[in-house]
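Sharing a chain and its predicted structure for anyone who wants a worked example. Both blocks are below, sequence first, tokens second.
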Amino acid sequence: MNLKGWIERDGVRLMPTDVERMLEAGPAAIAPCGGEFLLDWDDCIARDTLGIMPGPVPPGTVCCGGREVARIAPDPPSCTLEEAIVTAVNLRSDEGVVAFSGGVDSGLIAGLAHLPCVAVGIEGSHDSAWAAAAARMMGLELTIVSPTEEEVVEALARVVRVIPEPTNPVEASIATTLSFAAAWAGEQGHTRILAGQGADELFGGYARYLTSPDLAAELERDFADLKRQGARDQAVAALHKAYFSMPYLDVRVVRAARAIPAAERVRGGVRKYPLRVVAERHIPAEIARAEKKAMQYGSGIWRTIQRLARQNGYKKSVQGYLTEISRAEHGN
């Protein structure tokens, strides 16, 4: 048996020997299990329900001999949103680092996990300054990675090579930002990077939600897109033999969050209202209430890519610059 990642059932982490005993009853025995895993044994492969771990079979399936024989469908006991988040972070906190920007998403994870943190920000950027201030407030161990323009050029070329096409400016700038966190984690010998992905889509974090004509439908569409985003992020992490672990996509958190009406998730002009309420009980209110730019903007990576595009003759089209890089990297 080969296990990449970790497996749990009803909030209890399973040791490899526990999993082996479970599988003696047949491949379907793994179906009620949660976690972030790719498991193979005999001629079978099982992959976690949200596909956090990349693998050769579809997310949430158990395949034997190339045929699907069961679905992964964990059903832990119901709990409150706060209980769900605390459990999700605790299950992931035995090792690794936290991708930290000082916002409520990563701040709550960092406050619960008590792991080393890494922030990415061009020197003088908003994220580097705010992450440093937030870490001091919370007493966190923080490393700030401040890439140079040359390092952004190199990282951009690497991520364009591996992230799913078509490559657009937003996707590339997010992936490039994440690549620096993953590179640092890999250099420190960590494979797991706890990250706040999914919080915006679950709790209503994007500014456009404030004026959405159909918030519930928009939240559903964005949540459905998380698997595609996950494939992008994990492809970047894999370059550094790491993976992004996502507490907000834990089955408990997803279930608790989606049970909250859309109008309660964006309430009184406050985005991610339920998450902020939980966060205020665990981290400083200033961080729980903070409004923050998306990582690609706050880190300064997006502005650097814009500048690089202009320097390479693409004064009005970052997309043109990325297309040129993509062609070069893919040999077209």
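Comments welcome. Residues 266 and 274 are 8 Å apart (CA to CA).
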